[in-house]
Amino acid sequence: MKNILIIGSTGQIGSELTMKLRSNPQNTVVAGYIPGAEPKGELLESGPAEIADITNAVQIASIIDRYKVDTVYNLAALLSVVAEAKPLLAWKIGVDGLINVLEVAREKHCAVFTPSSIGSFGPDSPKDKTPQDTVRNPLTIYGISKVTDEMLSNYYHHKYGVDTRSVRFPGLISYMTPPGGGTTDYAVDIYYSAVRGETFECPIAQGTYMDMMYMPDAIRAMIEIMEADPAGFVHRNSFNIASMSFSPEIIYDSIRKYIPDFKMVYKVDPLKQSIAESWPNSLDDSCARAEWGWKPEYDLDAMTRDMIQRLQEKLAS
Ligand code: AKB
Prior knowledge:
By secondary structure, the protein is an alpha/beta fold. The protein is 44% helix and 15% strand. The strands form four sheets. Strands 3-2-1-4-5-7 form a six-stranded parallel sheet, sandwiched between helices. The protein has a three-stranded parallel sheet with strand order 6-8-12.
């Protein structure tokens, strides 16, 4: 039995993770949210919900006490593009917020999952099959805060024995809750345009590769790493995980197998493009495979088939 707090439960990842963890009747899953991003519908009705502002350590500690929480999924963050507009807020939520969570976890003996990202690499990192352990030097505040988060999480593990674990997520694609403010968001938006019969204006230039992943694989990764036997870990914070790497013209071709008259034009966004160019084309996830059995299930075509079918149902209702 697990008592779990999800900080950021109404976001792109949190909304699906909360429901998946609640589908196991052994779990009590508290949906943490901030005012203005309240849970609705099934998320609200299927279990407890509490205001859990990551900048407020006392509030987080009180939820952990009241629900006897043993595991925290810390999903609070500003994504890469929006973080460039608000770097101090990105740091306050991403790094100061994590310190709040780690301090409470140290006192109350909770395990903590905090996602990292392909954005933790930079232009000096090897571009293709980027290794687990290599030069980082990210250029964005998002990447700098993710590298710091990884190091802080390892520090709390080594110094205080806090059970911290993490994966470096690629761009995540889902038909449920849209992402907001990321460089990889185009790979979600393109499906909405295709299903709505609109021409897609692509903000990322032709030939720009980034790693991506379908949300069911990402949710499984978060659950599996937290359930893994740590005896197999050489690494902890954070594991490269990967399932597919593509550029805009490749996802466009995949969609056209199902919607042949779909049109795309390029309208490159200079900020998004410069961030994308500073990130790897693809990650080497062999350490995650070897140390806790990570294995993706979806490739691009399997994801495209499912995304189109799910979005057709969603947008028709
Ligand atoms: C972003 O684009 O900022 C995120 C990420 C890759 O971490 N989706």
